[in-house]
Amino acid sequence: MEDGLTADAVCVYEWTEARNGTTPVCLWGHSLGTGVATNAAKVLEEKGFPVDAVILEAPFTNIWVASINYPLLKLYEIAHNAYRNKERVKMVIFPPGLQQNFLCKSATLLKTVRGFLSQQWA
Q1: What is the rounded distance in angstroms from the CA atom of residue 30 to the CA atom of residue 44?
Q2: Which residue among 5, 23, 48, 89 is least enclosed by CB atoms within 10 Å?
């Protein structure tokens, strides 16, 4: 099932990228979808077509870690250490009470993402 979801994400990304002109395209995954977005980014990188950006909303490091509610700081450290340009990795902590399934209700979610992408694509 995971391979199928990844293949679907790669297909949608490639379709969008072929039609976007010069506009950057990002992969955006939420919760378990962050694994799909990350896998799709890896597949595209291996094919020689690195993605313009990846947004991971309410991510986890692996299913075991997700099941025991491991702090997200560990995931940030992994991404920060893995990426050459440290300024392109950012962790945003939203106010308590939104929890992972309600981040979409945050008034600042889109503003935060747009600001981050604007900095990356400037």
Answers
A1: 19
A2: 48
Q: What is the pTM of this model?
A: 0.69
Buried b (16+ CB within 10 A) or exposed e, 12-35: ebeeebeeeeeeebbbebbeebbb
Residues 29 and 57: beta-carbon distance below 8 Å: yes
Average pLDDT, the chain: 78
Tally of CB atoms within 10 A around 76: 18
Supply the DSSP string of 29-53, one letter for each residue.
EETTHHHHHHHHHHHHHHTT---SE
Cβ 28 vs Cβ 37: under 8 Å: yes
| Residue 71: pLDDT over 60 | no
Q: Six-digit token pair at 18? A: 């072929």
DSSP 95: P
